[in-house]
Design a protein that fits this description.
Layout (H helix, E strand, L loop, with lengths): L6 H4 L3 H8 L3 E6 L2 E14 L26 E6 L3 E7 L7 E12 L1 H8 L12 H8 L17 E4 L9 E4 L8 H5 L3 E4 L13 E2 L5
Antiparallel strand pairs: 1-2, 1-6, 2-5, 2-8, 3-4, 4-5, 7-8, 7-9
Helix pairs in contact: 3-4
Length: 210
């Protein structure tokens, strides 16, 4: 079994963690079934000044996990039907988290296909945050879940670092807020991956960013 990421991995600058999550393995243990995917796309949300963040209004019952310790999850529901998984970063008391937007499924493909439906091609099973959660069986029962606990049902395993030449940045997808929130290049994804939620968004490879 691969090494699980320790709490210290998450207790760092959010943009650094976001970039380094690419290529890591998201694992869900669900009723004895091990389901996993390689993280291919993420988005960062940082502080109350980030108007696209759920933390922009300040602490609420909903966003409480964002203010908690690093290495925990923040799982919320959108449109009353789609769950989204976020990983909490930085220090307790400062609201920052990273949305897992897409993964490349590599373990438990039979169950993942059953959950998403046989009509979906492999490359469409886990492209988008709602699809990731549906495929891996992630819901609000895993909100504020400790990714670093020995008995965790959801965790992230280490893997080789993705080279800078294979990574791109862009503005986040479908966010609301002020101009700074709309333009912040806080979406990171693997350039050559078929498992990315939206390749039409204008991007700049990190290797050529100024």
């Amino acid at each position: 079994m691969m090494t699980r990421l320790p709490r210290g991995f998450y207790a760092r600058d959010t943009l650094t963690v976001a970039r380094e999550l690419l290529g890591k393995r998201l694992v869900r243990l669900d009723e004895g079934h091990r389901l996993a995917g390689i993280i291919t796309e993420v988005e960062a949300y940082i502080g109350e000044d980030d108007r696209a963040s759920h933390a922009s209004p300040g602490p609420t019952a909903r966003n409480a996990p964002m203010y908690g310790p690093p290495g925990y999850t923040y799982v919320y529901l959108i449109y009353g039907m789609h769950h989204c998984l976020n990983v909490v970063t930085e220090r307790a008391g400062f609201p920052a988290a990273i949305l897992i937007r897409a993964v490349e499924p590599v373990e438990g493909l039979t169950l993942i296909q059953q959950r998403r439906g046989p009509q979906h091609p492999l490359t469409n099973l886990t492209c988008g945050p709602g699809r990731v959660c549906a495929a891996l069986g992630i819901d609000r029962s895993l909100n504020n879940h400790d990714l670093c606990a020995p008995d965790a049902r959801l965790w992230i395993e280490d893997a080789a670092v993705i080279p800078e030449a294979r990574i791109a940045q862009s503005p986040r997808i479908g966010v609301r807020g002020d101009q700074a929130a709309l333009e912040a290049p806080w979406r990171f994804y693997i350039l050559d991956s078929a498992w990315v939620s939206n390749k039409k968004i204008s991007t700049v490879p990190r290797s050529v960013r100024g």
